[in-house]
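Lecture notes, unit on protein representations.

Consider one protein chain, 438 amino acids long.
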Amino acid sequence: MNSKTVDTVTSRVVFYGSLLSVLGVIIYGWWQSSGSVIATSTDRVVVIARLFGLLASFCVLLEVLLMSRIPLFERNFSLEETVELHKLNGYLLLFMIVGHIVFMTVGYNVHSTDNLWQQFVTLNTGFEDVFKATIGTIIFFCATFLTLGFVRKHLNYELWYMTHLTVYFAILLTFLHQVSVGGDIVHHTWFKVFWFALFVAVFGLLAYYRFAKMFIHAWTYDFKVSRVEREAADTYSIYITGNDLQNFQFIPGQYASWRFLSGNLWFEAHPFSFSLEPGYNMLRITAKTKGDFSNKLLALKPGTKVLVDGPRGAFTSHLAKTKSVTLIAGGIGVAPFLSKIPGLLAAGKRVTLLYSVRNASSLAFKNELKELEGKGLIVYTFVSDTGQRITAPVLSKTVTLQTTVFICGPDAMTKNMPIELMTLGLPKKNIITERFGF
């Protein structure tokens, strides 16, 4: 296990340990206020509802933390892991919210002659900020609904992104509700101070790493478009220059979200991998002519200012713990590998690239790959239209049980290729995938 792998394990322990510590303080604060009430049959439902509410807020803060771009998380969790954790926590959040609403309504209804619906209405009209929290809850449910696969595939990125920005407004509404009528918080000064400090800390991290750092980098490095260069019939690269970009730090295999301050592009930001190794006085990203945003980038003019939100991601070379490394790229999935290959070769790895495209005109970076072949890279290309595919027999010839495999490409490839590899006996821990989606 190399030092970077140890750092990753340590960082994950720190991350999860911190979450458990905060959760422990929250439960202790609730118990100090409500523990004695658990034995009271008429009120125990209400105090359980309060616990659901506190845990819902914990889930909210975790959602914000997952979006905050903190290096501890970004450098040690892949994009796929982040998305899955974000999704799982979102569903857990909704469960806690439902539990809070149901138990609170039932608990207060014990002392009332109203039916449950009437009781729910009374809570929203008779208690300060409860109706605001209800509006926030509706927003949470709508945002979660839009993450469902059958819904998301019909949305463009911009609409999905703008809709999710409303979640910040929902968080504000529910926070006001908690600090004004939350029994466990308002009755204990230390818990209220802790609660405010927790929100300030999490949103402070969000403000710095998600927004302020991006503008600091823009001021420091003055990113701007140098040129747009076609790499294949459906692939092109954007070269970005600035001040001392050789000092802009990123790890090969990482990506960033890029916002081009031009015309109707300035309000959109999309993720693209760095496709040139660090150390040059320029950055390069590579895109495919697919979708409105990518096509608009072809018309970028030299000098266009760029905001760079990153670097991000853990699809990096330190995960290659074996001497033999195989890179499986599908189409534009070759981009992050171009930044990784020189470093892997310099580290003495035996590197093989399996590069699959739909047709011959889509083969990109031919000259660059040929130059890397001269340095030891082994390249196999596969053109789907001619029947050439990366099949199990092909994998068995290029992958051994002591190989680390990186996979980047279309969803079908990143889902199915690991199954093929594990069928051949390759351990799951030796298979690293990167999927780009929203």
